[in-house]
Amino acid sequence: MAPTIKPTCLLMTCAGILTFAASQAVAGDFARITSESEFNSLVVGKKLTLDENYVTVKKNGTLKGKFGGKTLKGNWAWRDGYWCRTLTTHSKNTDCQLWTVSGNQHKVTRDRGNGKTFTYVAN
Q: Is 48 domain-assigned?
């Protein structure tokens, strides 16, 4: 006698597969920013928010915003396909980041694409 599959089990399996496929499609919608001119077009001058924090990247190579309720300032440059920023407040370190974009969402991965990832929303 052939085993029977309960409709509830089949439905849950299909829902799980569809959810996974949809999440992969969404993840695949992000495109890497590969040049400084593309970065300038997509990012510079926009207010980028992350929860209660925000930053604005300026054309003159500076950035400003608020992080953790405190003023955030620094400088930036495009180097070897990465956006490199040096903070003059907070941790005062340099970090080169990989940026990808999908609509108004900017996914950023620290440490040349090897570190923590977070997503800004551009306003």
A: yes
| Residue range of the domain that includes 74 | 30-122
User: Between the CA atoms of 91, 57, 117 and 114, what dihedral angle is there, to the nearest 10 degrees?
Assistant: -70
Q: What is the mean pLDDT of each run of 10 residues along the chain (123 residues)?
A: 49 38 53 97 97 97 96 97 95 93 97 98 94
Say how many domains are in the chain: 1
21: DSSP letter: H
| Residue 105, φ and ψ in degrees, nearest 5 | -100, 135
Antiparallel, parallel or unpaired: β 105-109 and 82-87: unpaired
In a domain, 99, yes or no: yes
Q: What ranges make up the beta strands (E) of the chain? A: 31-32, 47-50, 53-57, 62-67, 70-79, 82-87, 94-102, 105-109, 117-122
Beta-bridged to residue 100, according to DSSP, are 32, 107
Model-wide pTM > 0.90: no
Q: Is residue 10 part of a domain?
A: no
| Pair 85, 78: CB distance under 8 Å | no
